[in-house]
Amino acid sequence: MLSAFVLVGNPLIVVAIMGWMGYRRRTGFLAGLTVAQISEFSLVLAALGLSLGHLEREAVGLITLVGLVTISASTYMILYSHRLYAWFAPWLKPFERRVPHAEAGRGAAAEPPIDVILFGLGRFGSAVARTLVGRGVRVLAIDTDPDRIRARASDGYELRYGDAEDPEFVASLPLDRVECVVSTLRDRHVSRALLHAIDASGSRPRIALTADTELEAQALRARGADLVLVPYSDAAHDAADRILATAEPAPAGA
Prior knowledge:
- This protein is of the alpha/beta class.
- The chain has eleven helices and six strands.
- It has helices at residues 2-20, 25-33, 40-51, 57-79, 81-88, 123-134, 146-151, 167-171, 188-201, 214-222, 231-246; strands spanning 116-119, 139-143, 158-161, 180-183, 206-210, 227-229.
- The chain has a six-stranded parallel β-sheet, sandwiched between helices.
- It is elongated, with a radius of gyration of 24 Å.
- The N and C termini lie far apart (85 Å).
């Protein structure tokens, strides 16, 4: 009973608090799963209480058992968090405000004209964004790291905090008014989730994704991606072309 209370009660408390603070139910649910356990520090405190005579052995045994159960179970809950959210999302609606202001973007009327939506502001993603802006393309760049967003504030394009795996967030984007959606995130699960969310939105901009291997690239193309970037392979081909273009012809008769 105590284990069930921790595994279910702790996430619900976090979902309720984050919902009241204006976060989406998905954000609250994923955050809540990370506290669906009693920490190993609880065992340290229980052992200290036993040594001081404040706790009986039976109580320490119960705390230890609850710790083992919740730590083990929450590991798998976190591992399958996105699948669990898909199951429980309809029942979490009461925990979300009508307008989740902490994550809501600006209204459509205030949305500036955008040509490309780009997910991922790592080294590769930020370089792609700067290159597109340099060629006159209007970019909306999205990342889950607030520090990256702050660091790119002066790069000359629109920025927003968001998660490519969140179908509700993807659906809130102006997909019907952009030419292309680009993801520089080399995670096949994220890429597939993004493809699914775009298809579910009813809009169909061109989709460019990123993969680590050609095998992954083929799988993403089969799922509907219009273009798949393979950074290391693409860079190698570009480098080889530049090397051959600048190579001096061999002397006659050599």
